[in-house]
Amino acid sequence: MVLERLGSSISGALKKLFKAAVIDEATVKELVLDIQRALLQADVNVKLVLNISKRIEDRALKEELPLGISRKEHVVKVVYEEITRFLGEKQVPLKIEPNKRRIIMLVGIQGSGKTTSSAKLARYLQKRGLKPSLICVDTFRPGAYDQLQQLANRIGVPFHGDPKSKDPIKLGLRGLKEFRNRDVVIIDTSGRHKEEKNLIREMKQLEKALKPDEVMLVIDGTIGQQAAIQAKAFHEVTPIGSILVSKLDGSARGGGALSAVAAIGSPIKFISVGEKIGDIEAFVPSRFVGRLLGMGDLEGLIERVRGAEIKIPEKKAKKILSGKFTLTDMYEQFEAMKSMGPFKRLLQMLPGMSGNIPDDMVDMAQERLEKWRIIIQSMTPKERENPKILSSSRTRRVARGSGSAEKEVKELVQQYNNMRRMMKQLRRKKIPFLSGKKLPKSFR
Ligand code: GDP
Ligand code: MG
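That is the input. Now the predicted structure with guanosine-5'-diphosphate docked in place:
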């Protein structure tokens, strides 16, 4: 995948920088040239590339160094920040409120990946404890109904459609009625190739009649910088709430599509990276870049430069990985997350760990975390140390105390159990950090 190539050539350039004896104008120039080459190969817009490199060059040598931070470390941070910036400043999560049904309508041209993405999104939400449902209002393409029905059946998500219907609005309204009690309704619409005008008209009518909370535009990532033109065109007709960029696996133009779309201003919320139903991820620019660069220790370094006073607790990491992981630890993690970013970061500090942590484990909406934080606060210290003792009466008390549903308390415990299991699995893998070996010197 070309995005991986982009990442490895940038981290290659950074490694080269780390080997240099001194950081001067010449080393920075060379680094910038390497980065330019890498970005251009990923089809990132030339102007944008020049812009990024100029900013890196300007900041690398001129900015003042924070206490205890070397010039090298500073340059790495600058590169990371500038590359993150061109993908959109921060993550915009899907807004899902408890006890409020959310309607998401997927639009886009034919073949962009709407139908597969609808199912992927449903699966994604289902795995996070929500109750999604799927409606097919594509009455245009023969076979659209079968395609989504099969996918829906495979993941066990309720589906509404009618292969004989020619009226997408009626169909949609019927589906919405049927799925009154689901948490999320995902509507897959038809996309037309040649009859763009009809597509646009239908999209507008559907939007008016079905009143989706969010219109999500699906854009084929293989079209590169062209993605911007498409996104703009759709945006002019219906306010696009968010964007899903599909087919980012195997695309030589992924960098182009991502950067072009990010420049439009509608947030990219998801990317799809393969044909399998699980091949979807929430798009978090900073994490994406961190992974792109593929180095856990790099990410850790950046965190260290950022929040000099937040010490990455080596002791804590050891304790957690040794399996003594309590709800109190999880609570502390949630607290730290506010200033530090995802929990994953802590684990990524460990050399050799980057990319090994399943996204599902950490990929939780910020709102949900906030909720859990409150629930944990409502527990007694004993319950936090040993969640096993949470009987149904205790669960009820905690739920009442935190203003949440019992289901949510149970979910939290479930998540805790998952995390603990994951920690145990990590421990079984050989981690140099735990066997007493130190981090490589350059990254310490
Ligand atoms: P729609 O016409 O917009 O509904 O597009 P579909 O969902 O039917 O997808 C069109 C084609 O693209 C199908 O063959 C999908 O399997 C494929 N596709 C969709 N998303 C991805 C992806 O992320 N990676 C790859 N490799 N193929 C994808
Ligand atoms: Mg389709």
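The first helix runs from residue 2 to 19.
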